[in-house]
Amino acid sequence: MYYLMYKRSTTMGTNMDALVDAARKTGGAPMALICPDNKALSAVNEAMAQGIVSQAFLVGDKTRIHSLSNLTGPFRNQYDILEVDSPESACATGISLVKSNQAQMIMKGELNTAVFLKSILDRKTGLPAGRRLSLVCIFEIPGMDRLVILTDPGINPHLFPIGTPESGMDIIQNAMDVAWSIGIPTPRVAILGANEVPSPSVPSSLHAQALSRMHWKNAVVSGPLSYDIALYPQFAEKKGMTHDPVAGQADILIAPDIVSGNVLYKSWIATIGGAVANVVPGAQVPLIISSRSDTDRSKFLTICSSVLFSRYIKDRP
User: Fold this and answer.
1) CATH of 14-129+283-315, one of 3.40.47.10, 3.40.50.10950, 3.40.50.300, 1.20.120.450
2) H or E element at residue 278
3) Residues 218-249: pLDDT tens digits?
4) pTM of the entire structure?
5) Cis before residue 315, ω within 30 degrees of 0?
6) Considering the domain 136-270, what is its CATH architecture?
7) Cis amide linkage into residue 157, ω under 30° from 0
8) Strands (E), 77-235
C-alpha cells in the first residue's frame, strides 16, 4: 500500500505535501485527458515532472492538440495523441483506454460536462460502478490540524434525493473511500445540520440521525451536527457534546444539499485561502472534472488525489 500515512499536524502545508508525496510513491499512473486544453495540460505536466502521471493519452482534435503551448517540454514522449472527430468520440475512446487497462483515470478538458458524464454513465458502453457519482473535496484549511473532506458541493442537488436515509448512503460511502485512500483509517463523519437536535420540520435531520445509528465498518458516523460542533472541540465542549465520538473531531463533513456544500467550498477557498484536491468516485476509475475557477495548484492536487484513489481501487478486495 502506498497511501498517505495520516497524522494530525499543526504545520501549515504538511498535509497536502504529504498527499503529494504519497502520490509520488505510487510510481505514477497512466491517464486519459479528453479534449485537452492548456490549463489541464499544465497540471498534467507538473504531475509528470513529479512522477505522479506516468503516461497521458490526449484524445481530441489532433490539430488543436498540437497547437497547445503546454504540449512542449521534456515529457513530450510521454504523451500519446489520439485523433477523434467529436467530443462524444473522444469520451468513447477514453473509456476504451480504461477498459483495456491502458488508463487508470479520466480527466475532462475543454468539453461539456454533461457530454462527458453521459458517456461515463452509459450502462452498456460507459464505466458505471453501481453507485452515485459525487464530488469529494479534500481540504487543507488554515488553522486546522488535519485534512477535512467535504461532500457534495458540485454534483448532487440533495443528499437524500428520494427522502430516505438509505438514499444518502452512496455519497457517504464515496467520501469514506476517499478518506481510506489517503490513509485515514477510521474516518469520523459528520452529517451537517443546523444544530444537533433532530426535528420533524427538517426531514434531513431525521435521516442523519437514522444513519448515525447504523453500523459502519471502519468509520464513525454522527448527525445531525452543526458545523462548529463537528469541527471544533471547544464548541463541542461548550454545547455538552463531548460524549459524541465525532463532535470536534470530524474528518468528513456531509452537506445536506448542494447549496450548503457549495457555500462551504467557496468560502474555504475564497475567504480563508484553503487548498483543495477533488476526487469524483462512483465510476470504475476516478474522474477528474475541473472547474473554470480551479487554480493550477488545485488541478495538480486533484490529479494527485485521483492517483491515490486509483491505486486504492486497484488494491482493495
Assistant:
1) 3.40.50.10950
2) strand 275-279
3) 999 999 999 999 999 999 999 999 899 999 99
4) 0.92
5) no
6) 3-Layer(aba) Sandwich (3.40)
7) no
8) 79-83, 106-108, 136-140, 148-151, 188-192, 220-225
